[in-house]
Amino acid sequence: MTQGMKNLQTWWAGLGAQDRRILLIGAALALPLLAWALIWQPLAKARDSARQAHADLATQHAEVRQWVAQIKARQGGTMAKGPANGAQSPLAAVESVAREQRVLDQLKRREAEGGAGVRVLLDEVPADALMRFLEALTQRHGLRITQAQIDPASPGTVHAQISLSRDAP
Length: 169
What we know:
Structural class: alpha+beta
Strand content: 15-25%
Helix content: 55-70%
Strand order of the largest sheet: 1-2-4-3
Oligomer: single chain
Distance between the termini: 92 Å
Low-confidence stretches: 78-85
Radius of gyration: 31 Å
Mean pLDDT: 85
């Protein structure tokens, strides 16, 4: 045994029966309290925080899905057929609208798909700015969303991979 343990045993043996009993009861009461304060409470707070973050992301995801559905609905009905600016290619339309809507920094990739289509990748773009960007492309430039994958990023922003095409005249 170590010297510290020997000293502890000597001290314990020197205590009276009533003192030992009081110390044992105090330790029995303090141990669960310490476990609650140092283990259970932090875990409960972390769980609540994770639940709140999940709820926030789920709400944001539902909003993004609703916006995509609204844009797709607009494409099917009231949108004018063909581009408003027939001289601009889909890739050029994406560039100009991204600059106009101030999402050019978030526009990480844009690729032409054939002569009448374009695929874009936007990273950490504010969700409302993405909706304005897509609305301008669909309404003013006659592009139609053919495929969209939009995932929540940080609060208020999304990651989006979208394919757009122009109907053949």
